[in-house]
From TrEMBL:
<keyword id="KW-0597">Phosphoprotein</keyword>
<feature type="DNA-binding region" description="OmpR/PhoB-type">
    <location>
        <begin position="124"/>
        <end position="225"/>
    </location>
</feature>
<dbReference type="InterPro" id="IPR036388">
    <property type="entry name" value="WH-like_DNA-bd_sf"/>
</dbReference>
<dbReference type="InterPro" id="IPR039420">
    <property type="entry name" value="WalR-like"/>
</dbReference>
<dbReference type="Pfam" id="PF00486">
    <property type="entry name" value="Trans_reg_C"/>
</dbReference>
<keyword id="KW-0804">Transcription</keyword>
<feature type="domain" description="Response regulatory">
    <location>
        <begin position="5"/>
        <end position="119"/>
    </location>
</feature>
<feature type="modified residue" description="4-aspartylphosphate">
    <location>
        <position position="55"/>
    </location>
</feature>
<dbReference type="InterPro" id="IPR001867">
    <property type="entry name" value="OmpR/PhoB-type_DNA-bd"/>
</dbReference>
<keyword id="KW-0805">Transcription regulation</keyword>
<dbReference type="InterPro" id="IPR016032">
    <property type="entry name" value="Sig_transdc_resp-reg_C-effctor"/>
</dbReference>
<protein>
    <submittedName>
        <fullName>Response regulator transcription factor</fullName>
    </submittedName>
</protein>
<dbReference type="InterPro" id="IPR001789">
    <property type="entry name" value="Sig_transdc_resp-reg_receiver"/>
</dbReference>
<dbReference type="Pfam" id="PF00072">
    <property type="entry name" value="Response_reg"/>
</dbReference>
<keyword id="KW-0902">Two-component regulatory system</keyword>
<dbReference type="InterPro" id="IPR011006">
    <property type="entry name" value="CheY-like_superfamily"/>
</dbReference>
<feature type="domain" description="OmpR/PhoB-type">
    <location>
        <begin position="124"/>
        <end position="225"/>
    </location>
</feature>
Length: 230
């Protein structure tokens, strides 16, 4: 089992070019390469990839810090492929949230096997026990760990949209219509990104549970977990 999309974050241009070619042509994975961790974090789809291959020595945010950021926003597989050695390095990256650590030089076939092994573990279907719940009566979001988060009216409208979508992406236009806002023309700022950001931060401050609310490049947003309306 291989992921559909993968972000490769590595500043070694030659290595990245050939690894990207191998994964795309031999494994059928759509690879997006970033030679700078800040470039990944600035991308609209930064937390929407199915998998991440991360080097440790990177321009911008270093690899360990990047893994910590990813773990706050996604439960996708993370494999480190790096030339850094030593038990302390292994301990550092695994503690940060990486699923596996490979040491360069490494064969591309080994990278593909590592990706498949991690993907089998992380691609488990969600169950009703892990469902999030939108309690209309109390105006709260109930996290699977039992935490209850008080929501604003805009938060409730957005979450109703995501619940009705059943895990499918919701367009920006649909979300704006739900909020009663006009859809702007051209590049005008519609304020939706700020609204989504505030909702995500409200949840992150209340619980350590991974927030499954992610952007979907060129589409809108998706709530990648069961969400029920009570």
């Amino acid at each position: 089992m291989q992921p559909k999309t993968l972000a490769l974050i590595d500043d070694d241009a030659e290595y990245s070019e050939f690894l990207t070619q191998f994964l795309q042509e031999q494994q059928g994975i759509a690879v997006s390469h970033f030679d700078d961790s800040n470039a990944l974090l600035a991308a609209p789809e930064a937390f929407s990839f199915d998998f991440y291959l991360v080097d440790l020595m990177l321009p911008g945010v270093n690899g360990v810090e990047l893994i910590k950021i990813l773990r706050r926003r996604t439960d996708a597989g993370v494999v480190v492929v790096s030339g850094r050695l030593g038990p302390e390095v292994f301990r550092e990256v695994i503690t940060a949230g990486a699923d596996m650590y490979l040491v360069k030089p490494v064969q591309f076939e080994q990278v593909a096997l590592a990706i498949a092994a991690v993907q089998r573990r992380v691609a488990k279907p969600a169950t009703t026990e892990s469902a999030w719940k939108l309690d209309r009566a109390s105006g709260e979001l109930v996290v699977p760990d039992g935490t209850r988060i008080q929501l604003s009216e805009a938060d409730r409208q957005l979450l109703e949209c995501f619940a009705q979508a059943g895990g499918e992406p919701v367009t920006r236009e649909a979300l704006l219509n739900k909020l009663g806002r006009e859809v702007p023309e051209g590049e005008a700022d519609d304020g939706l990104s700020a609204t989504i950001y505030r909702l995500r931060r409200r949840i992150e401050r209340a619980t350590p549970t991974l927030v499954p609310l992610q952007s979907k490049s060129r589409v809108g947003y998706v709530f990648r977990a069961p969400l029920q309306i009570l």
